Amino acid sequence: MINRLKGTGVALVTPFLPDGKVDFDSLQNLVEDLINQGVDYLVTVCTTSEVPTLSEEEKDEIVRCVVSKNAGRVGVVRGVGGPDTMGLVHQLHTCDFTGVDAILSVTPFYNKPSQNGVYQHYKTLAQNTPLPLILYNVPGRTGCNIEADTTLRLAADCPNIVAVKEASGFMNQIMRIIAHKPEGFSVISGDDAITLPLLAAGADGVISVVANAFPKEVSTMVRFARANDFYSAQKLHLRLLDFTQACFREGNPGGIKALLSLQGKIQNILRLPQVPVSDKLIDQFRELLSV
């Protein structure tokens, strides 16, 4: 299973229709394009999916749509995260995980637990999950960092915690995890801008936002790096750098949705409190696409 979650994963956007409903036709088309362009796995109902604005019914429908369109061709990860440990345990026992390979679970947000609280939270999830578990560390959104020693402790104590998606941006912390992790535990970049240096340090891949728009380029860059062809990987990394920086300038997923709309793949619609990016940024995307 874990081999299906190495390389390039894509944090899928949720396309919407003008009436605010999920655009399942565009979602299916996006999934098909990503698979055809060489990505290794798909990550559903996550940050980039605008998951806080989705109902439980919509989350289930989105996962079913992705699983059906994928038809077993690449790996599929489902996001199941939040600040209520026992509420998540209930979800783990009741969700339909048909066609899903692993669960991605973000650090508890808002209540800012101690490191022991973080450890006990994930240990409890690991004791109740029907699938391998991927930790998701994004303190810029959650207000809670998983320190390296906590990640390493969980990796050692819970065999079904198989990876961490690291989006902290704390390079020393991430490299410490890479240096001391047990065999078989994966470190996944959660930040497009630093994926290449993390791969050079020994990370196993990326869960990418930018790959929604440039799946072939990102997945090829990751494959070059994992084959130790860093000259070729660097060229692709630098070619995408302006897009990567622009995508996050006014927040995610506003940037990537604007870019996808310019590519004709989805409509540039978000759910409040997210709003579309500025005309200035859209003009910048147009200029970058024209080069």
Number of domains: 1
The SSE string, one letter per element, is: EHEHEHEHEHHEHEHEHHHH
Tell me about the biggest sheet?
A: 8 strands, parallel, barrel
Any idea what the CATH architecture is? Answer: Alpha-Beta Barrel
List the defining traits of the structure above.
single chain; 291 residues; alpha/beta; TIM Barrel; eight-stranded parallel barrel; 46% helix
Task: Please explain how this structure is put together.
It is a single chain. With 291 residues, the protein is α/β, with parallel strands linked by helices. The protein is built from 12 helices and 8 strands. The longest helix is centred in the C-terminal third of the chain and has 18 residues, at 230-247.
Produce the secondary structure layout.
Elements: E1 7-11, H1 24-36, E2 41-44, H2 56-70, E3 75-79, H3 85-94, E4 102-106, H4 115-128, E5 133-137, H5 139-142, H6 148-157, E6 161-166, H7 171-180, E7 186-189, H8 195-201, E8 205-208, H9 215-226, H10 230-247, H11 254-262, H12 279-290
Parallel strand pairs: 1-2, 1-8, 2-3, 3-4, 4-5, 5-6, 6-7, 7-8
Compact overview of the structure:
With 291 residues, the chain is an alpha/beta fold. The chain has twelve helices and eight strands. The longest helix is centred in the C-terminal third of the chain and has 18 residues.
